[in-house]
Amino acid sequence: MDKRTVLAIVLSAVILIGYYGFFYKPPVPQPANVATPTTPSTDATETTPQAAAASPTDPETLPISPEGSPPPPVQVSDINTPLVQAKIISKGGFPYQWWLQKFFQQADDQGDHIDLLKGSEANPALGLLLFPGKSAYFPHLSLGATGSDTVEYSGRLGELALVQSLKLGQPPYSVEVTLKIKNMGSGGLEIAPGIRMGMPQVPGAEKKKGGFLGAGSASPLITPLYRMENSVERQNKYDKLGVHQEQVGEISWVGLEDQYFLRAILARSVTAQNRVVYGRKGDYVYSDFQYPTANLAAGAEREFQFTLYLGPKDPTYLKPFAGANLDSAIDYGIFGFVARPLLWLMKFFHSFLKNWGLAIILLTIAIKLALHPLTKKSMASMKGMQELQPQLKAMREKYKDDKERLNAETIALFRRHKVNPAGGCLPMLLQMPIYIALYKVLYNATELYHAPFFAFYRDLSAPDPYYILPILTGIAMLAQQKMTPSAGDPTQAKMMMIMPLMFGVFMIFLPLGLVLYIFVNALMTVIQQYMLQKNIHIIDLFRGKGRAAST
Predict the structure, then answer these.
(1) Cβ within 8 Å of residue 146, ≥6 positions away
(2) pTM for the whole structure
């Protein structure tokens, strides 16, 4: 590469690192018995449905029970399974708290379980959408039939009689919702049934931006997303999220996400008139799914079905929803077709190593060995270019006034020595999709959430608290740069030496799992460069011969 190319690369890297480092804002056993109802309090004074705060306008006032009859007492049903501990409230008939039994707030299984809904009896996280253009309702329902994995509620909302049943279990972390609506009035009603999911933002989440390339410690920022037709739309620019935004189309699911967990409402019927509404008001963020408007004649009854998924972004749990393509909620980037096999391979290594850090190391080594022929070719080409520099310099001086002759002589020189000037960069470019895909895998892998490495490293999803790996990575990258054949002048070499130092600083903010991968990759590159310089063939290492006659 010539001086201008090197300078352009360095300046581009400085701008990229500066932007992402300082200015970029990232998106941010078997089930036990289901229902054990309790009656914490009776809200007898409340006679109108609550409206969710996120809608720009409140809904019209509707009676929640037949005129003259008091509302039923609020009842809470407990759910306890090996995966989930949750509470379902009769005010709305949905879960309002959903603790994940295998995920904790802190590493080493310390602190409270992760609660994906963060609702309360006064402010449930899920509500009913019933009428076009109206906000969510939380009608007081009565607890009905319960079973080992089902719970049912019934009640009235104005002229509508409601029966809502929830079925728990398979696939894991999911709830099947069936809503029956009957028009008890004398005239027809327009209905557009759906579900609102809304919750308060994690305090301070907007300030916990990712580090370099948007990656840092686990991001708690909760943002809306939805899948329309064949693409997932992420609303991760939280500071630009309005109070009310909506789309109409073939929407298969909507939800709220953070880095490792997903809360989703899945449509059981996908039409071109399905609707998603999302937004934020203050620290409240919400996402609605609503079926198309339909007319319900007097005395008529209709049934609508939904599915809730409240769990980790783990392909194991998301793939069973193949019809809705829920696994596309995991952001693997444009090289997802490469990322998925890499994730499978990492899980395979973990199956017998039983340590995610060791699995990352083995995965990085395996990829490095698989790409060794390309890397060796790139290094050999760069070394060849370095050896030709004196001749190229002499030719530039000799033919400085004849550019056409200089180009012809330069091409002839490359041909005589069988050196491809693009041979140093092209093999590296072919490897980039694999490394980018691996980066996305490690950044999004729920398996690394609070996963320990060794005794003093308890969380692969958090930055290194001791700065040991970032320092070692900076040293390895510095050694790598120092050993890399330079085809330019000493000034270019000094400029390129700045890069490892800059990357080493930004390693401080990356999750430990990512830094571990970068460190092992840099260390392997140093070993490869040493072998090339010492004329060592990798096969001879396994044969015990040490040094080969040629590479």
Answers:
(1) 34, 35, 37, 77, 152
(2) 0.80
Considering the segment(s) 37-41+68-208+218-331 as one domain, its CATH architecture is Distorted Sandwich (2.70)
How many angstroms separate the CA atoms of 419 and 382, rounded? 9
Neighbouring CB atoms inside 10 A of 133's CB total 12
3-state DSSP of 44-111: CCCCCCCCCCCCCCCCCCCCCCCCCCCCCCEEEEEEECCCEEEEEECECCEEEEEEEEEEEEECCCEE
pLDDT at residue 540, as a whole number: 60
**pLDDT tens string 210-255:** 444 444 445 689 999 999 999 999 998 888 899 999 999 999 999 9
Chain mean pLDDT for the chain: 80
Percent of the chain residues topping a pLDDT of 90: 44
Contact 102, 170 (CB under 8 A): no
Tell me which residue of 270, 301, 298, 274 sits closest to 288, measured CA to CA: 274
**Res. 137: pLDDT tops 80:** yes
- What type of residue is 535? N
CATH 2.70.98.90 in the chain is located at 37-41+68-208+218-331
pLDDT of residue 208: 53
- Structure tokens of 29? 């056993």
Q: Report the alpha-carbon distance of residue 463 to residue 483 in Å, rounded.
A: 28
> CB-based contacts of 324: which residues, under 8 Å, 6+ apart?
227, 252, 253, 266, 267, 307
Q: What is the dihedral of CA 450, 452, 463, 375, to 10 degrees?
A: -120
Give the Cα separation of 217 and 207 in Å (integer): 12
pLDDT for position 129: 95
Place of tokens 């980066």: 439
